[in-house]
Specification:
The chain has 14 helices and eleven strands. It is α+β, with helices and mostly antiparallel strands and 365 residues long. Strand 5 and strand 6 form a beta hairpin.
Length: 365
């Protein structure tokens, strides 16, 4: 009996659990826009902003989505390789490593419908948003000297596990350390570290949307007839009705009743908040350890500094991406995962190869 049987997870149930694909089942208490509105109404906007930030709210910010998508698409395409240094070969000879990936089939395949690509995608996703990620493993029978070899490894969804008093619980049941692989990234996750920036970005998006709906900065309804005496409820209704009409498809055309004139203040243009939105991309890039140019943003540089797209791309793979790949490689290289003397690395050869390996049908010259 393996870990999944002890947790009450059949293979069919495990396949559904391990997949981050939406199965069409939604909880009325799951985080979302309606929940955010209710919390703000009940507790007040200021107190609501001090509550923990949810992934659904963060991923709605374009810069966050771009950073997340860039990371997962870059990392998940690299296959995992197990390398072993032959006895007597100095560690300075990295080219002498033997590829022993075939001894660890779980590195490149899974037993369920969740592919290794999907497994790695949501491992990086959890690391990006939360700073932690978890895999559940099946092992062979242990011997006297070491743990049993890993036979299969599945991604465990973030909502399915918790930490209680230093113990990891999966579906509220404790698991042994030999039955899991915990990835601890060098960050608390952007939901914690970038909370203020993300909420500021949300407010900027709301302001930009409001300006697009109402390009005229300020509209004043002026009562010109001294015989018209409006009560405050009537004034409020005039303002509400006019604001509603301005948001409609034909909101550029309106009608003012006799005795009331329309005055506009400010320039008539749609302010896109370009500088503010670009600054958000730079800040999100800083939290994500991704240069702003990779997020379609710009940053101030000296006029004599010359940068190319190729140079930016190379620096991304050389300096930015290892922040996320190194913790995964280090954890999978520990002795409880692979045999001593073996290390696991992402195969990035295709990324640096000047001539990509052809994958189509062979053709004659």
């Amino acid at each position: 009996m393996g870990i999944f049987d002890r947790l009450g997870l059949s293979r069919k149930r495990l396949d559904a659990l391990s997949s981050p694909i939406d199965l069409g089942i939604a909880s009325p208490w799951q985080e979302g826009s309606l929940q955010q509105i209710l919390i703000a109404d009940l507790l007040g906007a200021q107190l609501a902003d001090t509550l923990p930030l949810g992934r659904a709210e963060a991923i709605s910010i374009p810069a966050v989505a771009k950073a997340r998508n860039l990371l997962v698409s870059s990392v998940s395409k690299f296959p995992l390789r197990a390398l072993r240094r032959p006895v007597g070969v100095p560690y300075s000879r990295s080219d002498a490593d033997d590829d022993v990936t075939g001894e660890y089939a779980w590195l490149y395949r899974t037993n369920g419908p969740v592919s290794p690509h999907e497994r790695m995608t949501y491992t990086v996703d959890d690391g990006y948003f939360h700073g932690l990620a978890l895999w559940l493993v099946d092992r062979s029978a242990p011997d006297e000297n070491r743990l049993g070899a890993i036979l299969n490894a599945d991604y465990c969804p973030w909502d399915a596990w918790t930490v209680d008093d230093g113990k990891i619980l999966v579906n509220d049941k404790p698991v042994d350390e030999s039955e899991i692989i915990l990835f601890n990234f060098p960050t608390d996750g952007i939901l914690v570290e970038g909370r203020k920036t993300i909420r500021g970005a949300r407010d900027t998006e709301a302001a930009w949307t409001g300006r697009m709906r109402n390009p005229i900065p300020l509209i004043e309804l002026d009562v010109t007839d001294p015989d018209i005496n409006l009560t405050q409820p009537e004034i409020d209704k005039y303002v509400t009705d006019w604001a509603f009409a301005r948001r409609q498809e034909n909101g550029a055309v309106g009608f003012t009743p006799p005795g009331i004139s329309l005055n506009t203040h400010g320039e008539v243009h749609a302010d896109l908040y370009v500088e503010a939105r670009n600054a958000i991309r730079t800040d999100i890039g800083s939290f994500s350890n991704i240069r702003a140019s990779m997020l379609d943003g710009t940053m101030g540089v000296d006029s004599l500094t010359y940068k190319t797209e190729t140079g930016e791309r190379n620096q991304f793979y050389e300096f930015d991406l290892p922040f996320w790949t190194d913790p995964i490689e280090a954890r999978l290289s520990q002795d409880d995962v692979v045999s001593r003397g073996t290390r696991v690395r992402f195969d990035k050869y295709e990324n640096y190869s000047p001539t990509p390996t052809p994958t189509g049908a062979p053709t004659e010259d």
